[in-house]
Design a protein that fits this description.
Layout: E1 22-27, H1 31-41, E2 53-58, H2 70-79, E3 84-87, H3 92-109, H4 118-130
Parallel strand pairs: 1-2, 2-3
């Protein structure tokens, strides 16, 4: 399901499939993008922050056009105990690699990878970012 912001409309809740992963997209060139994500975070159940949320930051190849402080993005990941992924959607190789990484995260969060839970994976992602 794609949404521009949260909360999701409730009129079709009974038809909505289970949500296994929430990827918040932040366009580094848009302060509105960050504000929208920050406002949406209040509508996410706390249990999702146990490995089922990530922040996907786009436009990182254009550092000269940044409207958002990188510290604000890192702080989001730290405060919500969620991984921060960076990508440049205009470069096909990076776009494909990012899509594959998100798909793998989704498989883990949905429980399709035996022996790996969303919580342990989230912890592993945070530990690798600290190195």
């Amino acid at each position: 399901h794609l949404a521009t912001s949260l909360p999701l409309p409730s009129e079709r809740d009974h038809l909505r499939p289970r949500i296994d992963l929430i990827a918040f997209m932040i366009d580094i060139k848009s302060k509105y993008s960050l504000k929208n994500v920050e406002a949406s975070l209040a509508h996410v159940d706390a249990s999702f922050f146990l490995g089922k949320v990530c922040f996907l930051v786009t436009g990182v190849g254009r550092v000269n056009y940044c409207s958002i402080e990188m510290n604000a993005i890192w702080k989001l990941g730290e405060v919500y105990c969620s991984p921060v992924l960076f990508c440049e959607l205009e470069l096909e190789g990076i776009r494909v690699a990012t899509a594959q990484r998100l798909l793998r995260m989704l498989q883990i969060c949905a429980g399709h990878i035996p022996g790996v839970s969303a919580l342990s994976f989230g912890s592993l992602m945070r530990n690798s970012a600290d190195d």
